[in-house]
Amino acid sequence: MSTQTPPAGGTGQVSAHPLILLGMGNVHRELLGILDAKAETLARRYGVTFPVAACADRSGFILGPDAEGGRIPAGAMLAAKAKGAKLREIPGAAPVSLEEALGAAGPRGILCDAASMDVVTGGIGLTAARAALGRGISVAFANKSAVALAFDELETLARENGAGLGWSATVCGGLPVVNAGRRDLVAAEFRRLRGVFNSTSNLVLGRMAEGLSLEEAVAEAQRRGIAETDPTNDLNGTDTALKLLILVRTVMRRKATLAEVDRTGIERAPAPAAGEVVRLLGEAVPEGDGVRMTVTPVAVPRDSFFGSIGTLDMAVEWETDLFSTQRLVATEGDAIPTAAAVLRDAVHIACGRPTGPTGR
Ligand SMILES: NC(=O)c1ccc[n+]([C@@H]2O[C@H](COP(=O)([O-])OP(=O)(O)OC[C@H]3O[C@@H](n4cnc5c(N)ncnc54)[C@H](OP(=O)(O)O)[C@@H]3O)[C@@H](O)[C@H]2O)c1
């Protein structure tokens, strides 16, 4: 990767990789805290620092706390966002365009996309990713939109421009499903992949089974920072379908589109029999050159793998020819593991070992 330096690895050298934080919601607010708490560990263990060059919310981009000419400390941004203010309303904020934000980050920069989902056009995430990769600036996604809609294009852009690409935060928060699946299931052919990928719908189904109303259960998910501001896509199966699609495209390595996912939301959940619980399951089964993909609420035995997971859990099970059956589970009650996954991808990119583009 032409834009990256090798890890300092004991030489004492520390290389800076300025971040552009696109979106200043739950995920990036947690990321700012982690960057502060782990700065010394990142420098000592990996030889990297991540100054914040620029940030954006719906009001647009501003120079970040560590940019030349950036005049607002991270604490002021966090305080403003906690009050519901826009970044550009913060006294002293320096508004910049996307191009200027990319310029402030420079060729070693990493765009981190944790903006709201836009599953129709890809939204600001896709626009900014194209602009960044076109300039050789790497991208780490928590926002699924661009990866689900345009992975092939982004992978080609990254390869052609010597940039890194990370998207492990897009599926199951901090659980390393994407990275482990893509990197470590070497030469495997999938027989089946299933998962409970959406923690909001899992929490809501669990709490409703305990007697809470839909509204009360959604409010808890929002309080924890794991639900979208508008939870519609969490509940109607779209978020699960996007994650399934990302795994099919990037881990199973099959061609597929969102329109091919047969989707049913939790409003059509079946009534469980005694000893059963309801889970919103995403499933992909290869069929010839294609793949059959479904998202549907199903009643499963409480003592089965998916029945035994908790209300704050996400889980994946895959069956392959070489690695038999593997199951991964994470319990995540807030946005910290997702923020940590963005950081994980940034470190891998900075150290020259991104998740992709690897293989074809
Ligand atoms: N939270 C989780 O645990 C989790 C886990 C995995 C993946 N994700 C994904 O990560 C992303 C962020 O999640 P979140 O929980 O942090 O969401 P959030 O709290 O709703 O924050 C979204 C942020 O995106 C900003 N935004 C929306 N449209 C924008 C635009 N056109 N230009 C610039 N900024 C824009 C919003 O700006 P305003 O502040 O001005 O509204 C807000 O700051 C989402 O795509 C989500 O699906 C989240």
Report on the structure:
By secondary structure, the protein is an alpha/beta fold. The chain has helices spanning 26-37, 39-46, 74-82, 98-105, 123-134, 145-161, 177-184, 199-209, 214-223, 232-235, 238-250, 305-308, 336-350; strands at 15-16, 19-22, 48-49, 52-57, 60-63, 95-96, 110-113, 138-141, 165-166, 190-196, 261-263, 276-287, 290-301, 313-320, 324-331. The protein has two domains: 15-174 and 337-350, 3-Layer(aba) Sandwich (Rossmann fold), CATH 3.40.50; 177-331, Dihydrodipicolinate Reductase, domain 2, CATH 3.30.360.10. The site of NADP nicotinamide-adenine-dinucleotide phosphate has 26 residues, from helix 1 and strand 4.
Number of strands: 15
CATH class of the largest domain: Alpha Beta
Name the hetero compounds present.
NADP nicotinamide-adenine-dinucleotide phosphate
- Overall mean pLDDT stands at 93
What is the H-and-E element order? Answer: EEHHEEEHEHEHEHEHEHHHHEEEHEEH
The profile of the biggest β sheet is: 7 strands, mixed
Number of domains: 2
Shape: globular
The CATH architecture of the largest domain is 3-Layer(aba) Sandwich
Strand content: 15-25%
Briefly note the CATH topology name of the largest domain. Answer: Rossmann fold
Structure annotation, total helices? 13
Give the assembly state of these chains.
single chain
Q: Considering the protein shown, what is the CATH homologous superfamily of the largest domain? A: NAD(P)-binding Rossmann-like Domain
Structural class: alpha/beta
N-to-C CA distance: 17 Å
